[in-house]
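Section 3.1: Structural characterization of target chains.
Under the original work plan, the team committed to producing a structural model for every single-chain target entering the pipeline before any wet-lab resources were allocated. The record below documents one such target. The sequence was received from the expression subgroup and is listed exactly as submitted; it comprises 141 residues.
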Amino acid sequence: MLGFANLAEKRQAKAKAAQAREALNEARALPLTMQQDIARQVMRECTDTMGLMATAAKAGREQYAFYALHTAELQQRIDHATLLADSDGMDRRIMALRMAQSILQASSGASEAYEKLAADILQWAQTILPDFSRYQAKLLH
C-alpha cells in the first residue's frame, strides 16, 4: 500500500511541476515589465520563506516540516486564486505562486521533479531582473 501512495505522490509532483512549467512559459510570453513583476513576486516569496526557515533552523526546528507546511499553504493560495481567476489563462499571481512553490520544493529536496524547473525559473529571473543579486544573496543565506 505504501508503494501506491509513493507513486501517487510522484505523479502529483510531476503534475504540479508541469503546471509550474506552463506558468513559466506563459510568463515568458508577457511583456518584460509584467515578467519582472512576476519574477519579483516569485523571488520575494522564496526569500521570505528562506528567511523564516533560517529563523526556524536557528531555533532547532525541523526544516523539512517547515517546507511541507509552507508548500501546503502555497497550494491553498494557488487554489484560492484559481477559484477567483478568469478562465482566459493563468492569472499572474497563480504563475508566481506556482513558480515559487517549485523553487521551494526543489530546495527542500522533497521531489526531483522540481530540480530542473527551479533552475530554469531562477535562470529566467536572473536574466530579466536587474536587481536579481539582491534576491540571490537572500536565497543563499
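The chain has a mean pLDDT of 85.
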